[in-house]
Amino acid sequence: MILVTGGAGFIGSHVVEQAVRLGHRVRVLDSLRADVHSRAAEPDLPGGVHVIRGDVRDAEASATALQGVDLVFHQAAKVGLGVSLADAADYTDSNVTGTAVLLAAMAKHGVQQLVLASSMVVYGEGGYEGRDGHARPPARREDDLRRGRFEPVDAEGRALRPVLVGEDDLLDPRNVYAASKLGQEHLAAAWARATGGRAALLRYHNVLGARMPQGTPYAGVASLFRSSLERGQAPRVFEDGRQRRDFVDVRDVASANLAAGAWTESAPDGTVRAFNIGSGTVHTIGDLAATLADAFGGPDPIVTGEYRLGDVRHITADSSRARRELDWTPQHAFGPAVAEFAHAPLRAPAGG
Q1: Is 177 one of the catalytic residues?
Q2: Is the pTM of this model over 0.70?
Q3: Which residue in 41, 115, 117, 207 has a CA-CA distance of 20 to 30 Å to 251?
Q4: What is the mean pLDDT of residues 306-331?
């Protein structure tokens, strides 16, 4: 049996759906927290899935959920950049403490296989090449952002060229959410060393697709754009819209999870391996907004010049390791995936 924590959520529900389709017995542990889920809506899950309403931070709930389980897909987390530093304790408690409690229960019950939902945010700013080779720019200054100087520069103020990020690149989380995701990775590595467990750390890039959350400031940019279009409003694109990202369909992310789960069955004891999960193609946030607005039939995007401290400028994945070692290939190209997302059902607004 497999356990999917956060299995009633956006990505988790797709993992559950694909796992059931492949013939797995599936259990879900989900707190259905009010800042993510509608109070009125039932979880959108296939029949036959055993759902436990509980929080991974609750040792008893985690222990109950792990009974008879061989493999855990740990999707439960508080996601998004956050609104302010007032969110810091909630991110740390939900993501770091929750993971620690779950891993302790896995160690106690002898569960040896883990697929962890990590994120591209652990890298901070993406990879860059400068005049002297590979470069890691310092954090962007608010004064530069306020003046519309969005592109990172090196310590001498020289221009840098963005390149793909590999799993062995420097990890440099630049906001509280990012720090909490890296904390999850470190805990998973400690668990694997202590127990001989096998862990795949999946660093998701920008995920979009059906059942994305809406009506919350913690949602991803694709959901925010789609929600604006639903209201008849133009998507508001921050900075100059040229921020580079890798947008990947949620169905491809789910299939990557199942491939990683199979990998954990045969990996040597104590193995921990990170994998970038992206489409392999680079697009800008402006591209996303324009393509989505066109497919939806809504107003053209507005580039506002606004910014958020803690946002990074460019972050795009080299996901060749996942293709090579997990035998995984994304199946949904950017254009068709965005066009389908333009009319896909979204999750009911949180708390409604």
Answers
A1: yes
A2: yes
A3: 41
A4: 94
